Every structure is written in C-alpha cells, then in structure tokens.
Amino acid sequence: MSIGLPEVLVILLILLLIFGGRRIPQLGRALGTGLSNLRESVSRGSAGKGVERGQGAPPPSSSEPVEDEEAAKRP
Fold it and tell me: How does pLDDT run across 12-53, given as a tens digit for each residue?
C-alpha cells in the first residue's frame, strides 16, 4: 500500500487548515533540522557520547541484589 498524489494533497490541505500558511514553513524547517540532527547522531554512533558496549543500567542501589520481584516480596 503506497501513498499516492491524492492522499498527499489531502494531508497537505489538512495541515494548511490546522496550522495556517505562515506556520507551515517553520514546521518544515524544524522537521528538517530534527532529521538532520538524527542522521548526524546515528552516523556518529555511541563513540561520541562515551558510552561503551556492554554497559547497561547502573546497579541497584540496595546492598543486596534482588534476583526477581517474587523473591523480593517473600519474607
């Protein structure tokens, strides 16, 4: 199922009615900037953030590790 020209025109008409003519260029610019930032961060990967593979969430704050929730509820 693909989107054809009539569907695109209906979507654009709805956007024009909702946001108005002055707001559409601002929304397009913001969307383009967001996509550009997303592509940049994906291409950069996790190397730029200092996150290493294998590191997950921080360990639990309690001194005793809890294996599962059921064990934690038992007296």
Answer: 899 899 988 888 889 889 999 999 999 999 998 855 555 455
Q: DSSP letter at 74?
A: -
pTM to 2 decimal places: 0.44
Q: Where are the alpha helices (DSSP H) in the chain?
A: 5-19, 23-44, 69-73
Residue for token digits 């953030």?
49
20, 12 in Cβ contact below 8 A? no
Contacting residues for 27 by C-beta, under 8 A, at least 6 apart = 15, 19
Backbone angles phi, psi at 27, to 5 degrees: -65, -40
